[in-house]
Amino acid sequence: MFPLIFISLFGVSFAARLDGTYLPPVGAAGAGGFGAGGGFGGGPGFGGPGFGGGPGFGGGAGFGSGGGFAGPFGSGPQIPILRYENNPNQGDGSYSYAYETGNGIQAQEQGYLKGAGSGVGEAQTAQGSFSYTGPDGARYAISYTADENGFRPVGAHLPTPPPIPDAILRSIEQNRAEAGFGSGFSDGSGDDGQYRPQVVLRQYRENNNLIPLFFVFTTFSNLVFVQKTKQIMSVNRGRGRGRGRNMHFKPTRSQENVLALTEQNSNDIPQPNPYTNMISINLELNGPSEQWFSQFKSSWNLLKRCPAVANMLHQHLDMIENPYEEALKLMYNCLDFKYAKSKSLSFTIMEEFKMWSLMSRNKIIHLLTVDIKISAFNIVRQQSQFGLMKLVADTYEMVTDCDIFLDIIKQMIHEKQYKEACQCATLLGLHNKFGINEFLVPLVLQDKLFFVEDFLTGSRAHQIELVTFLDSVVGKSSGIRTLLEDFIAKYDIPEIKYEKLYYKPWRKLITRMIKIFKLPADVSPCLNKKRNEGALQFLLNKRFVDNSFGYESWKEMVQEAVKDDPSLQQELVAQIAVFGETAEALMWAHFYNVPKQYWPHSVRLLNDNPKNDRHQQENLQTESEESWDNDNPTQETTYHKLGLVRNQIVLIDTITEFENFLDNVQDVCLVGVDCEWKPTFGVQKSELALMQIATRDHVYILDVIKLAGKAPHLWQELGVFLFNNCDILKLGFSFTSDTSIIIRSLPHLSFNQHAGFLDLLSLWKQIEKNPNIKLPYEVQSGGPSLSTLVHLCLGRPLDKSDQFSNWEKRPLRQSQLEYAALDAYCLIQVLMSTTSFRKKKSKTPTKSKSKEVVKINPQPPSPHYEPVPAHKIAFVCDTMLQGLGKSLRQCGIDTSILENHVDHKECVRNYQDERRYILTRGQTFNMLMGYVPAGHCFNVQTDDIDEQLKLVLDYFNINVTKDHVFSRCQGCNSNSFVKLTKSTMNALAIASRKNRQIEMCQELVDEATGFSSEEDIENDYARPPVSYSRKWEICTEEKVDLGLSSTRNGAKIQIDSVPTGVLEKYDIFYVCEDCGKVYWDGSHFEKVLANRLQGIVL
What we know:
By secondary structure, this protein is α/β, with parallel strands linked by helices.
């Protein structure tokens, strides 16, 4: 029996032997290099036929002539190197190289440091491929990946292991269960992870498991395969990859032990899936594709992105059998694939393929199979830029078969790749396949909120579920960090940001999510209760400690804070009683029907004896409430008064009164503006309730609650003549918060905070910096508040007792109307008091010091005697001429502007690199003119920007035409624009609001930043867009990625900076391809021609 077993084992193991096609024979190193034909020596090994003459590096079959290492290097015929590229490591772990020899060897490799900068999980990673022609005439190609998981080669000629029979796996599990996991085999030997056939066979006999001998033979052949695989890896370790780096790779889990996965609990890891790392495409370029790609890369290096390069790619795709596979190969074989930014070659290839595939979709869509989608997904996962992954997913229509990627994402989660899993689930729309615990909560604990919010944008259910979970943690009595320790341990979450696991950051996170996703307030009951508890303490302090709260305002705001919460109602009664206001505590106890068992003793006593034994109640007061300083009684504060009679305070709450108000304020030149809204203690946004506009003799109070949704034309008229009129000075105090709520509540107002506004808080800060100026009155204490400023300028502070009021309750109290009127009117009074400002007298006269006059070198003659078109010349403006640089850009002149912190000598580098003429002034001119030829550095001698512009244009003899004006971006100097229609812009605006779930920014841009001024929106509807053919590079909207809202250069389109009124008014828009800034044609073009550029433009 045993001889038969031995013969069978020998036969099976011999059948599993690898022939010379896959490996050099062991022990034949002396016959030629690493073996007979193996390694870099000649023959069919991994290394190909070698660099030297014959099949090896040197003559003969190996590194040396005749064999072994002894022969002289290169003694045979020299084989030429056709191509060699080498980008060495610059210290960040990234490198790449590629070469090709005359005898058909091709090799390339890219490497980078995975997880660079994180400090955790850093690993050097390399990926590459090589190919050669074997002695049999066949072409052999290997692609490989080497990282922390080992060296993993892929090739069509490499063997694959036979499957492990289920009976063997079940038997091993049964024996392990009987012997005890980790306790060793039955003979007492420990389980060190090594497979021992003799022990397994003996256990089978002991347990009477009569397994067919064929299964044992198959298992043994698997062991032979593992041994052969280790030999393959050992050969590759000696290949000398890269630039001679000594890298040691560990085998993967499956290579170390075929049975290792059986030792893990199947409930803890995802079930095996053939798609997890499947790449069914041979990524090696060969034949015509390789030759074409070499030419294509040369064209790209010379021309970069241009129509000629795009056409070259499109023509190549037209001739390919399966363009979907070819695009992946081209993208993968780019040297910049690992870090594929928007301007990289790999990104450009995929972007152009997407455009081509849309045009040819009907012809090629049948070629897009599920296997190609899986391969595309696994290929693009190997690089680090999510923008490329999004582009590939869109191009290969992965969303239509999104379920096939589910197991891959689950494997990412198991490997703690929460960010990548979240991004992929968001991209593929797999929201309903995952709960919040799988990657959302771990990402929150890692403080990677951007990915969480991006995922939540597509799922209302997850928004509510996550906020509810976060709120439940806040509602516990224990600390947040303590509560989450079990959760972190259960899911083994790494990289926790423990500094964020406290109440304040947690509260801000919940508030942020509720605001961003516009969730109802009742999704966070625990947070609301804690906020109301804090609000109640704040109100009690203002009422009974600071004494800065009016009684009516106090009652209104307490009801807002307490609401229907019984515990807060009981707390209110108890706290008021503590402050000694027993009668008021009893009033609130009756108002909220608080059960008597929760009443303080003093309140019960007052309720039982409202008139009798009053002296007993007084004895219950604490000693702290008794007054012991009667000799120095507290003086009552005298506040600043309004100074207007009642009929000079006009409440505007009807359309007729609104129209009369607009007629009465047409001739004003100075107004004070203030706003009021009800304070909120939760996450709800405040809504504008009142807007006060004060003139010298009246205060108009606009009831926004009643008028906001009515008569939009009247609000529009108010915005035109007042808030967009630079001739009317508008006063405010710390007007930033007022501005934001005005823009949100009154969209028809067209509010422009840059048109004639003066913030008195900013003016006050500037005055304090000047020691020679002091205000009329002195105040010992007080922060930067309006009340303190009024005290300093007018002698008395403001009464703020009605500040915290329910401004949404109607009708308004008279005290509220007077408070609101005074807040706006006092701004004018403060400004008028500036006539009493006086300079401090200097005690000692200052002696004037005569400054040494520095002689400026004379200006050489102009280098241009003939007129030069504006688009044919380029300048660099020094740091003190930034305004001139912007004016030159308006004229369509290529102008680089130095920032304030940049050295002046950077101008010289600009001249040397880009042949830009230097514009500077003063002593810097003397220094810089020595570095450049005569006339290439110009000294600008005036301070006026308009005069500076004329001097430069005259000196360099520059002709500016209408075609040049506004042909360059004012922000980045680019002259490449994409032309978008109104419908496209509206689609981008809708997508922007949908993606971000925030209010669209309504702040208007300054006139100098665009072709048209926002000031012209309301009075320029009849004007057609200007249609000059500017000297720019213009492309159509097909070049815009609407999904990413970005240009073809990767710039994010600044759609949020364009007001809604502009989107509705104009038909054509222009987007800068380098910075994404949006422009449009309007009256601003004509205004610039008629003013600043008058007499300049031909």
